[in-house]
Amino acid sequence: MKLLKDVLVLDFSQFLSGPSASLRLADMGARVIKIERPEVGDICRTLYVSDTDVDGESTIFHAINRNKESFVADLKIEKDLSKIRQLISKADILIHNFRPGVMARIGLSYEQVKAMKLGIIYGEICGYGHEGEWKDNPGQDLLLQSVSGLVWLSGNRQDGPMPMGVAVADILSSTHLIQGILAAYLNYLNTGEGSLVQVSMLESLLDFQFEALTSYYNDGKQLPQRSDVNNAHAYIAAPYGIYRTLDGLLALAMCKIDQLGVLLNCDKLLPFTDPKEWYNRRDEIKTILKYHLLLKPTKEWLEVLEPADIWCSEVFHYDELIHHEGYKAIEMEQQLVFGDSKLKTTRCPIRIDGNILFSSVMAPKLGQHTAAIEKEFNLV
Question: Whose C-alpha in 3, 48, 97, 266 is 20 to 30 A from the C-alpha of 178?
Answer without folding.
Answer: 48
